[in-house]
Amino acid sequence: MQAGFVWLDEAVPGILWDAKYASEDNFTGAAVDGYAQNRLAGTVELAAALAIAAKRAEKTGLRLLLWDAYRPQRAVDRFLAWCAAPEDGKTKRRHYPNIEKTDIVPLGYVAARSGHSRGSAVDLTLARPDGVPLEMGGCFDLMDAISHHGAPVAEEAARNRLLLRGIMEESGFAPYENEWWHYSLAQEPYPETYFDFLPG
Predict the structure, then answer these.
(1) Neighbouring residues of 51: CB distance < 8 A, sequence distance ≥ 6
(2) Which residues are catalytic?
(3) Alpha carbon of 87 to those of 21, 99, 101, 140: distances in Å?
């Protein structure tokens, strides 16, 4: 493992995780370069802040469910290559039903330089103790205006999004306005470094 990084399942008690990019259950429809197993890594500082968030969630009877954290640059490069490839329609209905594939990068849903590659960003939601995610008004990586903070979603989903945001902001994270699931440390340890190591 890169110095300054840890496995989050080892460092953060009580979290749940499902590394979406290690499977076919993501917007590319295939496992992504840089994800060899269903585990997630992040900086030591990310883990410490997530531990605080996990305790806050636990006080409400909930758990954190993580989908992504550290993302090697090679995975970002794979995203960009996928966005530039011809449309096959495989994941459009679930992940970008109202925009064209060619608009994914210009609209900011995929970036050439991702905060995830700096090791201090996380994609997550809240779940019940049995692991069932709360209703958030849209799935992970739904590239649509409905995923933006403040989007007009049902009352339950709006309440759950605000709860997640409150927990994360109180734990030292800043939201990304286009994605209700994405949070970054307000004080990143490596704000200018984009890593490409393979965790292990």
Answers:
(1) 11, 12, 13
(2) 179
(3) 19, 12, 7, 20
Q: Cα–chain-centroid distance for residue 194? A: 17
Contacts of 133 (CB under 8 A, 6+ apart): 65, 125, 126, 127
Rg (alpha carbons) of the chain, rounded to whole number: 16
Q: In this structure, what DSSP letter does residue 18 have?
A: -
| Chain-centre distance for alpha carbon 163 | 17
The pTM score is 0.93
Tokens describing residue 100: 């064209």
pLDDT, tens digit (0-9, with 9 covering 90-100), for 21-40: 999 999 999 999 999 899 99
Could you tell me the two tokens for 88? 């096959």
Determine whether 29 is exposed, middle or buried from the number of CB atoms within 10 Å of its CB (0-12, 13-18, 19+).
middle
Tens-place pLDDT, residues 106-161: 988 898 888 899 999 999 999 999 999 999 999 999 999 999 999 999 999 999 99
Determine contact, residues 66/143, Cβ cutoff 8 Å.
no
